Amino acid sequence: SARVGDVATVTRGIADPPTDLAVTEGHRAIYVAARIAPDRRVDLWAAAANQALAGFAEEVGGGITVETLFDQNEYTSARLGELAENLVLGAVVVFGVVLLSMGWRAALIVTSAIPLTAALTLFVVALQGGKLHQMSIFGMIIALGLLVDNAIVVTDEIRKHLRAGASALTAVHAAVTHLFVPLFSSTLTTILAFLPILLLPGNAGDFVGSIGGSVIVALACSLFVAITIVAALAGLYGRAPGGSTRLPSWLARGVKGRPIAAFGRRLVTFAVTRPVAALLVAAAIPAAGFAIAPTLGSQFFPRTDRDMFELQVWLPTESSLARTQEVTRSIERSVREFPDVTRVHWQVGASFPPVYYNLIASRDNTPSYAHAIIEATDARAVTRLVPRLQTHLDAAFPAAQIVVRKFAQGPPAPADIEIRIAGPSIEKLQDLGEQVRLAVASHPGVLHTQMSVPRGEPKLWFDARENETDLPLTALAAELQGNLDGVRAGSVLEEIESLPVRVRYAPTRRDEISDLESINFPVPGNAERWIPLTAIGDLKLRPEQGGITRRNGERTNTILAYTADGTLPIDVTNQAVATLESTGFQLPPGYRLEIGGEAENQAEAVGNLTLYLPIIVVATIATLILTFRSVRLAIILLVVAPLSVGFGLVATAIAGFPLSFNTVIGSLGLMGLAFNSSIIVLAAIRANPLARAGDPRAIVDQVLDSGRHLTSTTLTTMGSFLPILVFIGGQFWPPLAIVLVGGVGGSTLLALLFTPAAYLLFGPKIEKVFPSDPAAAPAKAALVN
Fold it and tell me: b or e along 176-192 (b: 16 or more beta carbons within 10 Å of the residue's beta carbon)?
């Protein structure tokens, strides 16, 4: 590792005396974990590291093999490849949607914005010192459906002016002048919605912050590309071919979509003729989403989809390293009976070196503990293996606590569930901890529980009768220590390395209490006379006070619980607390209960996410007010945002996903996206004096005139997420994508139903809008009538 450079190493091997043992494929081993510096590219570094390892393998010679068990570059390259493929598939979906709605010329113009914006985004990210990884690329996938929205709106608006007979220059000038403020406003509100993700502090921010950064940069670049390059291309080449053409009409000008247009007209007509009923109908589905949200369950981050998973084993604390290794051999034989298992790597007596950022190497010199990393054929095999292995091993090894689980996402936690009780008295902490542990263990989804301050561990005590021996107690203790743990007795020189030699009793003479009672000691002054241990004292087995754990200087009893695959730890934590409250559990004065684990991580992340929320909400409101110069219209748009989240929750429930931090991230982004469709509708209404004055027919015509905008932008945004849902799958990305898909679809429905109705009921009054405009006279008369 040192030859490669830019690396910190973590090594696990055989200690002296042995307190841990590394085993892989039946052979003893030394594991070395190397972490690269954060400013290095993993693909380039891995190539140099593999070359150095090949040279090292030749140096060590026969009898010793060097094998790479884990290479992050393989997973990183595969994930980036998958995401890049989905980026291309999303672009294909965008092209297809625009082709059907606007024709091949518009499709080429709009789709050209994707590579231009992506290149400009990567350029800006590089200037800022950003990195290309799966989070930043996923942010670009999210932005894919958004960055073409501006291009679609600009292209369609310019085509309208061209069809009306305007020149290219006039059409571009008129369209950009009319659309710049609404597009800038909608882009800015979306950027503000993703800003908390970028600014999120803590471990969760380190994990997902790049998503917000990529989206923000991509959106800003998309607006610039839309009003410059795309506008110029649309002016030059956007005019639909007139007269007869060899191409089918739908290919040249897009599909008419008369049934969709008719449905949209009926929807908007209903909104302007019965606005109160329209508001109630539009709010019904979002209200249902918020109503069913508490029943969906809650988790922090979903488990990762990877072809590796972990297996942890806890034996009784008095178990020796040899006993633990014996049990792990039996467990490994059971594990290998499953055909999907390819390799098994053990660290007995200590934690496995981290091969994944979420693993914590927190257990060293623990002979009763073993940790295994198991490789399977693929990620789907892991999904099948984990619950089956858990059930099988629990039944086959009842004396051990065994936990089989996938790698986790997000900030690491010592266990799925963690509850801490702080207070002064050790005995009271034990009593309270036992009550909490039983409440948690009563849940059917909990596999095993542990306490950091247990009742007491069995310990063998020797009560010496000092009057029956001339041996000082210190000499007696030293003799026992030497017989059982061994004494250094020279060394053996093997080539250039000196290996220590330790002499002690064989295991057959120190495993049982009866073996210890037969240990003989020399009588001082008489080298030929020996006396047994039982002649000078008695051996007694009695509990010893467990270790005292502290947190922030306070005595703390920490209860840890591990849940079965598919169980939601946060829900289990809440149910355990509710169970305690129902039984009358109360903490005495001076004691405090704290929630840790996934529940604490989620609460901390959500709390950090809301740090900048007041400022961002104020900035969003100010943007909307300045855009329309109307507080009432800004309020209408602000109501649209949470209603769109309600649609996203309905989609989450239909897809069967629980609420997670990814759902929160998707909802934040959705609140920015929800403005876009309604901003287009309000801008169209206010562009026509009659519609602005409140004429129902004019409002219907203006909203439907924007229908192509709405349909195209909605379908492209939703379509850009389909590859994630269909091809990537898994548990991590789809919960975020489904919220955005459902919410964006709902925001379009709101733009056609809720926004026109709300404008009629709460929009500006005609006398204040057009106090002296002659063109408003017919509208005034219509309103009076």
Answer: beebeebbebbbbbbbb
pLDDT exceeds cutoff 60 at 9: no
Which residues lie closer than 8 Å to 442 by C-beta, 6 or more apart? Answer: 576, 579
Span 11-45, pLDDT tens digits = 554 444 556 777 776 677 787 777 777 777 788 88
Bridge partner list, 373: 310, 345
Dist. CA 604–CA 349, nearest whole Å: 33
As a 3-state breakdown, the chain gives helix, strand, coil percent values, each rounded to 5, of: 60, 15, 25
Residue range 756-785: mean pLDDT, rounded: 55
Residue 551 bridge partners (DSSP): 554
| The token pair that represents 506 in the structure block | 């064989």
Q: What is the DSSP string of 331-389?
A: HHHHHTTSTTEEEEEEEETSPPPPSSTT------S-TTEEEEEEEESSHHHHHHHHHHH
Question: Looking at residues 447-476, what average pLDDT do you find?
Answer: 80
Residue 58 sits at φ, ψ, to 5 deg, of -70, -30
**What confidence tier does 463 reach under pLDDT thresholds 50, 70, 90?**
confident
| Cα(9)–Cα(354) distance, integer angstroms | 11
Could you tell me the pTM of the whole model? 0.77
In the three-class reduction of DSSP (H, G, I as helix; E, B as strand; rest coil), residue 488 is classed as: strand
**Which is higher by pLDDT, 142 or 194?**
194
Whole-angstrom Cα distance, residue 237 to residue 507?
88
Phi, psi of 563 (to 5 degrees): -105, 160
- Alpha helices by DSSP H, 200-242: 202-225, 231-237
pLDDT tier for residue 729 given thresholds of 50, 70 and 90: low
Residue labelled with tokens 């490789």? 375
